[in-house]
Structures are given as structure tokens and as C-alpha cells.
Design brief:
The chain has 555 residues and is of the alpha+beta class. The strands form 5 sheets. The protein has a 7-stranded antiparallel β-sheet with strand order 3-2-4-1-10-9-11. Strands 5-6-7-8-12-13 form a 6-stranded antiparallel β-sheet. Strands 16-19-20-21 form a 4-stranded parallel β-sheet, with helices on both faces. The protein binds 1-O-pyrophosphono-5-O-phosphono-alpha-D-ribofuranose (PRP), glutamine and magnesium ion. The site of magnesium ion (MG) has 4 residues, from loops. Keywords: Glutamine amidotransferase, Glycosyltransferase, Magnesium, Metal-binding, Purine biosynthesis, Transferase. Its EC number is 2.4.2.14.
Length: 555
């Protein structure tokens, strides 16, 4: 999962980067591997800073001050395609046509045929193994086909409509055209979230696109609206245009956003993540009661596995009238372990992150509540920790059903064999994680916990539980191919983390002064430019002569 953000400020002389950086820090839970911001300043010049690392590591006041311009795009990355190489940090950029900057959340499933098309037909060079760079180039190629010196919103809608027919998979995207404006669009199934919000600013409006509404709340934006599946929204200084660019398909947001990914204080597609997690706790309470009775067991205390499961665990405890105790204390300086790269790192960090308070466990039958059990890394460690400090019996309850299938839409679960529930029934899952008993939410209960807040949504992507993939075209051979490419033990993926030093690049540097730009000078905390998004690009893509730049000065 990644976080995407776009911002257009009414006053073009106010820099957007500080606010984009703030927003990215609010989306940090969606991606901890890399982040980046590209802004567009006077004369349509792009200013870029991106690198591997968390927001607080990549940006400081110095690097932010060099990102000038009243509109920009930001990204936090959790890789699901390609490697962890910092050349794949986003946003991506192509200089032709017009200068486009692009940030993507999701994952494409037909990259092989798209790459072939890029090579044989479009003659565009893709410089990384990132599906996001590919997606950007498909869009750029479609835009190029207009053959126009200056384009308008209609041309962009047409290019995006064409792109949506060519690509398959999940994509929520924010893009920026040099000197023109920002846009957001969402795949026809609406698998990944993105929305828009507005804030009054002087005589006009500031506009925000973000993966989650929490960014809008924090920035004082209102009127949050989700981008509809298959819809594109373009914002220029002249206003907002929106269009359904792809025929309607089944609207199926990924239910795992509600289970784990999104922040509880976000509202996605009209559903409060917090409320949905409360409902998951209520529903799970009934299942826990049923299974405990069946097994003739009692529970003394309910303990959440921080952080995500807390909301559900509290509701569950209240419903069962059991004491709720924070038996594990979380080190607030350790991030989310599930989205860390590599099993070794995830395992080590569960211990670094959580500490068990013996008093709350000793001599008790404890019910540990987690939002999900995926690889079992967390549950295996915490069950052991609970036993080590003297718990009598350890029962684990999960707000999500067993996860037995790969995710192909933007969550890094490519390999079924890495999943602890793969090929195991509930009893063998319990033995695998060392628990006395494991209790899972049923799928109908999970769906109802979320859907009750917006009955207009008739389907959710639940493929990790069912193996039914909403886009089609995901069969055994595709899954085997994906496993070969991306499983934890595949060298290219694992090695990517250490492959290259952190890179920060600029498309244009504030200190350069007027005139032709050289390749980005090192600044801030990064080093020099890599050939990132476009093999043909000199990275001077913000040249004054590019068609659309003058429109920046319209208002
Ligand atoms: O079975 P696993 O492979 O361990 O994955 C599932 C666990 O990972 C996540 O926690 P994480 O530490 O990422 O984030 P959190 O602090 O938001 O709960 C999730 O909340 C589960 O606790
Ligand atoms: N998690 C995501 O959304 C990842 C986006 C893209 N597939 C990448 O790997 O960079
Ligand atoms: Mg967790």
C-alpha cells in the first residue's frame, strides 16, 4: 500500500511543499520504504526530492525550502512491484509530453504485455521494474497521441480513458502536468482509495487529493469526496472538471484497508474506518463466545496487539464483559512491522516494538486480539512473549478470516507459502503460532462490519480470503509467476534494500537561477540524480519551451 497526495494552492506564490510533507507524514502508515515530493513552480518547472526512507528522514527544512511552487504531488512507498531500489521511489516523472509527474497506489497485473507494448509499439524506455513507471508511460503515450502543442481537459480524459482500457489491476493515482494542474483517478473497480477536499483561501480555493481523509481533516480542508471508480478529476487554476472515463465495473474497495491499512480516523468511501473496526470487534465477540463455549474454556482478560487491533479489542471486551488490559506496550519509535521488507527485519522488530507487562498475564487465560494474522510473524512472537511472562493459556482472536491467498492489488503478500494459514486448518494455525486456540472472524461477519455503514457498496475485494480476484485474469500461472518474482526469498527483491545509497534528485534546483538547468545538484540529505523515470530524459524536463507552461500564470 502506498500513500498518494496532490495539492494545488490558490495562491501560486505560496509553496505547497511544507503542507505536502505534513500530509505525507499523516500517510506514513501506508508506506515506510521511500517517499518523495515534486512541486511545480514558476514557468512550469518541477522541483523534486525523493529517496528511500521515512518522511522524517528524507525531508528537512532545507530540502523542503528548495521545493518551490504552489502545486505538487507526494508519495510514500510500500513496494509491491520491482525492488526497493531508491530509483523506484515515487513520484515518477516523464518529460514528454508536456512534463508529467505521477504517484501511484496499487499494483498492475498485466505488466508483461504492457511492457511489450511499450517496447514494440510505443517505443518508450522503461528504466525500472516499477509498474508505476509503466503506468505513467502508458498515460504519457496516450497523451502524446493527441499530437497537440497544447492540450485541454478533454484530451486528458480521453488519454486516461484509453489507459484504463489497456491496464489491469489496482491503481489510485495523482498526477501533475507542468504548469497546467493536478489530477486524480481511480481504477474501474475502485480497489484503492483516493479522495478530494476543498479549503477556502482568499478569493478562491485550495484543492487536495489524498489517499485518506485524515490529511484533509488535519489541513482544514472540507467537502471530502471520494474519487469514483473509473473517474478522473482534473483541477486547474480555472476550476474542477470530473468525468467518468471508464465504463462502470463492480465497485470493490479492498476490505483490508478497513482491517489494517487505513488510519482509524479516516473515512473511506463513506465508511468510518474506526466505526468499522468497532463493528469487527462486536462481531468477533460473538464468534469468540461461541468457540469458547464449544471448547469449554473461559477467558480472564482481553489484551490487544498494538496498534491496529485496539479499537476492535476494546469493543470485543465490552461486549463480552471482560476486563481489557494494555498488556503489550508499544515502542512508539518503531513503525509498522508488517510492511517492513524481509522476514528477518519483521521478526526482529516485533520484539523491538512490543513489550509484555508480566502482571497482566501471569496465571491468566488471556485472549489476544489482533486485526489479522498474515505471515504469523506477530502472533508467533507475542504468544511466546505472553507465555514467557506467565500466561496460563493464550488464545488468539483475529478480526479477519484466515488469509490464504496472494494479494495482487498493492499489498506485498505475493507468495501463498509465506502465509501461515496457507494449507492449514485452524488447529494447525494455532500450533504454528504456539497458541492454545485461534479464533477467526467469519468472512460474512467481516463484510457486514464494514458494509453496514455504506450499503451502496455491494462488493469488496476479499481476494486474500477467497482467492476470487475482482479484475479477473489472475490464475494459477499468474500467481506462480508472481511468487517466482516476489517471494521473500527471491534474491532480487531482498537485495534491493541495500543495493544503492539513498538518492535524492532534483529536476530543477532553486539555486540554479534562470536559464537552462543542469542535472540536479545534490542538496538536502540526498545525493545526486539517478536516471529515474524516463530513459530519454535529461532530467531537465522543466524547460521553458514545453507547451503548457504558460497556463500557470493564468490566474
Ligand atoms: O501475521 P503478521 O504477518 O505478523 O501480520 C499481521 C500483523 O501485522 C500488522 O501489525 P503492524 O505491526 O504492521 O502494525 P500496527 O502497529 O498498526 O498493528 C497487523 O496489525 C498484525 O498485527
Ligand atoms: N503499495 C503500492 O501501492 C505500491 C505501488 C507500486 N506498485 C510500487 O511498488 O511502487
Ligand atoms: Mg498489528
Amino acid at each position: 500500500m502506498c500513500g498518494i497526495l496532490g495539492l494545488l494552492l490558490h495562491d501560486p506564490n505560496t509553496d505547497s511543499a511544507p503542507e505536502i510533507c505534513e500530509g505525507l507524514s499523516l500517510l506514513q502508515h501506508r508506506g515506510q520504504d521511500a517517499c518523495g515530493i515534486v512541486t511545480c513552480g514558476p514557468k512550469g518547472r518541477f522541483y523534486q526530492c525523493k529517496a528511500n526512507g521515512m518522511v522524517r528522514d528524507v525531508f528537512d527544512s532545507n530540502s523542503i525550502s528548495r521545493l518551490i511552487g504552489g502545486m505538487g504531488v507526494g508519495h510514500v512507498r510500500y513496494p509491491t512491484a520491482g525492488s526497493f531500489n531508491n530509483a523506484e521511489a515515487q513520484p515518477f516523472y516523464v518529460n514528454s509530453p508536456y512534463g508529467i509527474v505521477f504517484a501511484h497506489n496499487g499494483n498492475l497485473i498485466n505488466t508483461s504485455s504492457l511492457l511489450q507494448y511499450m517496447d514494440a509499439t510505443a517505443h518508450r524506455h522503461i528504466n525500472t521494474s516499477s509498474d508505476s513507471e509503466l503506468l505513467l508511460n502508458i498515460f504519457a503515450n496516450n497523451l502524446q497521441q493527441t499530437g497537440k502543442f497544447r492540450i485541454n481537459e478533454e484530451d486528458i480524459f480521453t488519454a486516461l480513458g484509453g489507459m484504463m482500457q489497456q491496464v489491469k489491476g489496482a491503481y489510485a493515482c495523482v498526477a501533475m502536468l507542468a504548469g497546467f494542474g493536478i489530477m486524480a483517478f481511480r481504477d474501474p473497480n475502485g480497489i484503492r482509495p483516493v479522495g478530494m477536499a476543498i479549503r477556502k483561501s482568499g478569493s478562491g480555493n485550495d484543492y487536495l487529493f489524498s489517499s485518506e481523509s485524515v490529511v484533509a481533516d488535519a489541513g482544514g480542508f472540507g467537502e471530502w469526496q471520494d474519487v469514483r471508480p473509473g473517474e478522473a478529476i482534473i483541477i486547474t487554476r480555472s476550476g474542477v472538471s470530473r468525468r467518468q472515463v471508464a465504463p462502470s465495473a463492480t465497485f470493490a474497495p479492498d476490505i483490508f484497508e478497513y482491517v489494517y491499512f487505513a488510519r482509524p480516523d479516516s473515512v473511506l468511501d463513506g465508511i468510518s474506518v474506526y466505526r468499522s473496526r468497532m463493528a469487527m470487534g462486536d462481531a468477533l465477540a460473538d464468534e469468540v463466545q461461541r468457540v469458547l463455549t464449544e471448547n469449554n474454556l473461559t477467558v480472564d482478560v482481553v489484551i490487544p496487539v498494538p496498534d491496529t487491533s485496539r479499537v476492535a479489542a476494546l469493543n470485543l471486551a465490552q461486549k463480552l464483559q471482560l476486563p481489557y488490559r494494555e498488556g503489550f506496550v508499544k515502542n512508539r519509535y518503531v513503525g509498522r512491522t508488517f510492511i517492513m521488507p524481509g522476514q528477518e527485519m519483521r521478526k526482529k522488530n516485533v520484539r523491538r516494538k512490543l513489550n509484555a507487562m508480566a502482571l497482566e498475564f501471569v496465571g491468566k487465560n488471556v485472549l489476544l486480539v489482533d486485526d489479522s494474522i498474515v505471515r504469523g510473524t506477530t502472533s508467533k512472537e507475542i504468544v511466546q512473549m505472553a507465555k514467557d511472562v506467565g500466561a496460563k493459556k493464550v488464545i488468539v482472536a483475529s478480526c479477519a478470516p484466515p488469509i490464504r491467498f496472494s494479494n495482487v492489488y498493492g499489498i506485498d503478500m505475493p507468495s501463498r507459502t509465506e502465509l501461515v494459514a496457507y494449507g492449514r486448518d485452524t488447529n494447525s494455525i494455532a500450533s504454528a503460532i504456539g497458541a492454545d486456540l485461534v479464533i477467526f472472524q467469519t468472512l460474512p461477519d467481516l463484510i457486514e462490519s464494514v458494509r453496514q455503514f455504506n450499503r451502496d457498496i455491494t462488493a469488496f475485494d476479499c481476494s486474500v480470503f477467497t482467492g476470487d480476484y475482482i479484475t479477473g485474469d489472475v490464475d494459477e500461472s499468474y500467481l506462480a509467476h508472481l511468487e517466482g518474482l516476489r517471494a521473500d526469498n527471491v534474491r532480487g527483491k531482498a537485495m534491493g534494500t541495500t543495493e544503492a545509497p539513498a538518492v535524492q534528485s532534483s529536476l530543477s534546483d532553486r539555486s540554479d537561477g534562470p536559464g537552462p538547468k543542469t542535472n540536479g545538484t545534490p542538496h538536502g540529505r540526498g545525493s545526486d540524480v539517478t536516471l529515474g523515470s524516463d530513459g530519454h530524459s535529461t532530467m531537465n524536463g522543466s524547460d521553458d519551451t514545453v507547451g503548457l507552461h504558460n497556463s500557470w500564470n493564468i490566474s
